[in-house]
Structures are given as structure tokens and as C-alpha cells.
Amino acid sequence: MKFLILALLNISLLLLIKSFTSLVLFSIFLSVSSFFLNNWLVPGGFAWRNHHGYSPLLRGPAGWPLLGVLPQMGSLAHRKLANLAVSLGATRLMALSLGTTRLIISSHPETAREILSGSSFSDRPIKESARLLMFERAIGFAPSGKYWRHLRRIAANHMFSPRRISCLEGLRRRVADEMAAEVRRAMEEKGVVELRKILQKGSLSNIIESVFGCSLEKEEELGLMVKEGCHKLSSKVRGIVGQIVQERKRSVAEVNNNGGNDFLSALLALPKEDQLSDSDMVAVLWEMIFRGTDTVAILLEWIMARMVLHQDIQAKVQQEIDACIGGGGGSATQVQDSHLQNLPYLQAVVKEVLRLHPPGPLLSWARLAIHDVHVGKCFIPAGTTAMVNMWAITHDPSIWKDPWTFRPERFLEEAEDVSIMGSDLRLAPFGSGRRVCPGKALGLATVHLWLARLLHRFRWLPAQQHVDLSETLRLSLEMKRPLACEVVPR
After folding, report:
1. Which among 91, 101, 223, 266 could bridge 107 via Cys, Cβ 3.0 to 4.6 Å?
2. pLDDT value of residue 30
3. DSSP string, 2-41
């Protein structure tokens, strides 16, 4: 009997211990659940856990614990973010978490203007990769302040002034002729033109000579470094660009002549009190190469894809060019910058492609709130990263009629001109406000001239394979599959 009682006591004790363990585990589960409910399931997710009480009007997805919406992003992030904003009724402003980074995204012109044009978001968030690429000493990433304002003045008055752009026209014409020759050669040898490589090569040559005033033996190497965009290459960049700067400085000192219309000559010709250090010059020039090489090529590939798909619109542009300067591509007169103002339909085509396929759909690089601020009626704490989804704005049916239709005529029918230079936030592919792209005028001059010359010389036709407008977001929004087409000399 004694043994039976002891056995029952042991069983009771074991049951009690098991019950206590279950209670502890349940308590832990409740604590963990409470933590995630309070710190994860808030509008915008984990990074907003300490701020959602101050911003009750902000909407946004909770995302994944600790990771936020990072797992949902990818090569079509601009589309996913646009759909997310619409589904949550948060097009004006949406809160997100990218890991532990607090983020807001505007998909509406009004809140986009507040972010881009106000002084509250005058800085950019600088990651370690940007520092290693020396961008924190270049125009795009340098913190707002005396040095950054100095760079902006140099860019506006010396590097991208109307006079400098005009002086580089001869280079743009020559590169256009070289690309046309490559197009003709490719058609003769292969029966098809793969345009991407031709445009990339021409764009690289153009930017290298614009920056340094001459072609380089290591031009191809610099092009590969731009494509890789890897911070591990920063020492190599310093070596190559730094050596060019040193050689040019010695040359200028020997002949006492700054000469040249290139960017490096512009920097070396600055008054002594405005001159940059060698390391800062390397950073500025490298940023010009890095940001200026692919954008023109990517945009032109999108434009030519549209011209191949829309033969009626291509013919209309060609008729406009012929009426302006005379017969087809075999005529003695070729398109020059002075003709471009008389080609409104061609300019409308470029605008429509920038609307449908903006190279920087999320306006490339973000902004940073330098102090607490209200955007619309929403409180945004200092240190919040802000982005504008320009792709979402340019595809919004409440802003654009038939937004998915390629129709350049919309820009000629508007009662007032839709500027793409940053003043109209319905279409601001180069950004707006203090951080607007300083090279926008040069980039557009290049695209307009090259497009006019390519369309003047050739008729562009579809190849056997279908033109695929699928897109992928890397550093810029590119065609997923390179354009292949056929050409017939005009």
C-alpha cells in the first residue's frame, strides 16, 4: 500500500511539473506574440514600432518580422510598390520597413513635391557601398551644406552650362555617325541589329570624351567597372581616374593652357579659391561616368523598341524630320542641335517613353529627413528615408488618360506644356528640387540628337523575334531582353 501511495505521489508530481512547464511555455508564447503584435503588426512594420503612435494616419504593410518588405522586392519593385499603395489606399504616402530602415514612399505628385522640393529632405542616406565608391564627395550624395552647394554651382555654371553643352555638340554628332556606321555594318554582316551593345559603346565613348576630352586606352575597363558598380573596385577607380587628373594637371602646367570643353578642363580652369582637391575631382568625375554612361543607352533602347513596334509613329517622326531638314538619310544635310526645337513630335515621343519606361522608376536614389517634418498630414520623424515612385505616378489613371497606351500626341494636345525638367511632378524622370539631376539638359540633348539621326538614316523594322517589352530593375529600368531589329537605309 505504501508503494502504491508513493507511486501516485510521483505521478501527481510529474503531472504538476508538466503542467507548470506548459504554463511557462504558454506564458513565453504569449510574451513573444505580444512583442510581435506590438512591434511588427503596426502600419509600416517593425521599423515603425516606436513611431506609429505619432503617425496614426500613415498606412503601410507590416511585412515580414525584422525583414519588412525586403523579401517582396526584386526586379519589379516599382510595380509591386505601386500595387501595394493602391491596395492600401496609400498612394499619397505609404510607410514601409526595409529591414530596420524606416521608409516612406510617395506615389502622388503633391506629396512627391513636398519630399523633393522642400528643404526637410535635402540629404541622401549614404550606405557604406556609396562611401567606398566615393559618392559622398560627389554631387549626388554629398551632404547638404557648403561643399555640396559649391559643387552645384560648379555643375550649373561650368560643367552643364548651355555653353558647355553647345560646345560638346561636335562630339555628339561624331558618336552618332559612328553608331550609324555600326548599325549598317551589323545589318550587312548578320542581317539583324542588336542595338544595346552599339548604344552602350556609343554612350560610353560620349561620356568618357565629355569628361576627359579624349578617348582612353582603359575606356572598356571603365565601362566594365560601371556595369559591375562594385565598391571593391574603388581603389582601381582612384588609380585610373586619379592618374588621368595628375597627367592633365602636368600638361596644363607645362603649356599654361587649360583649353578643352571637357569636364576635367572645366574643373582645372576654376579660380584658385573654387578649385577642388584631387580626391574630390576623382569623386566628381567618376560619378559623371557612373551615372551618365548607361542612362542614355537604356532610354534610347526603349525608344527604338517603341519605334519598331509602332511603325505609324516612327513614320510620323521621320516625316517631321524630313520636313525640317529635307529628304531621307542620304541627304547632305544631317540633323543638328539647332533643328531639334523644330521637332516637337520627336520630343513628344521621348516624353512618352520617359512616362512609360522611366530609367529611374523610383527616382534612382532616396532622400533623408534631416528633422521631424509633416508630409501632408502625416508626421515623419527625422532619419526617415523617403522615396518617390515616379513609375506609379506616370501610370496612374487619375492623372493620365489611358496611361498604358503609347500615345505621344497627348503632349501636343495638352493646354499647357508638361515639362520633364522637374517643375511638373506628374512627369519628373530627372527628379526635382535641390537634388534634381544636374546633367538632365545634356542627357536630353544627346537623346534627341541621336534619336533624330538614327530615324533620319534608317527605317527600323521588327526582326523575326517578337519585341519583348518586359522590364527588369537593376541600377536602372532596363529591357529584360535586348532589342533585336532590322534596318533599311532611307
Report:
1. 91
2. 44
3. HHHHHHHHHHHHHHHHHHHHHHHHHHHHHHHHHHHHHHTS
Tell me the pLDDT band of 134, cut-offs 50, 70 and 90: low
Task: Name, in order, each residue with C-beta under 8 angstroms of 200's C-beta and a sequence gap of 6 or more.
Answer: 223, 293, 294, 297
Q: Residue 490 in contact with residue 457, Cβ under 8 Å?
A: yes
Q: What is the average per-residue pLDDT within 77-85? A: 95
Instruction: Please say whether the beta carbons of 305 and 460 come within 8 A.
Output: no
Residue 97 pairs in a beta bridge with 102
Q: Are 150 and 393 in contact (CB under 8 A)?
A: no
- Indicate the range of 222-236, 323-337, 352-366, 368-382 predicted with least confidence: 222-236
Decide: pTM greater than 0.85: yes
pLDDT band at 198 (very low <50, low <70, confident <90, very high): very high
- Output Rg (C-alpha) for the chain, integer angstroms: 28
Angle at 56 between CA 53 and CA 60, to 5 degrees: 105
| 192, part of any domain | yes
pLDDT of residue 252: 73
How far is the C-alpha of 352 from the C-alpha of 435, rounded, in Å?
A: 23
Task: Count the residues in the chain.
Answer: 490
Q: Are 456 and 321 in contact (CB under 8 A)?
A: yes
Question: What's the CATH number where 218 sits?
Answer: 1.10.630.10
Please report how many Cα atoms fall inside a 13 Å half-sphere around the Cα of residue 317, on the Cβ side.
Answer: 33
At 49, phi and psi to the nearest 5? -60, -30
- Rounded to whole angstroms, how far apart are CA atoms 304 and 460? 8
Residue range(s) defining the domain that contains residue 386: 130-489
Q: What's the rounded Cα separation, in Å, for the pair 461 and 305?
A: 10
Q: Do the Cβ atoms of 129 and 141 come closer than 8 Å? A: no
Nearest CA among 195, 199, 183, 197 for reference residue 484 = 195
C-alpha cell at 454: 538614327
- Residue 248: partners with Cβ closer than 8 Å, 6 or more residues away: 212, 264, 265, 268
Burial letters for 243-270: b for 16+ Cβ neighbours within 10 Å, e otherwise?
A: ebbeebeeebeeeeeeebbbbbbbbbee
* Binding site per annotation, positions: 437
User: Residue 7: pLDDT above 80?
Assistant: no
Cell readout for 144 is 547638404
Residues marked as binding for heme?
Answer: 437
**Count of the separate structural domains present in the chain:** 1
Q: Is the pLDDT of residue 237 over 80?
A: no
Let me know if residue 452 belongs to a domain: yes
29 lies in a domain? no
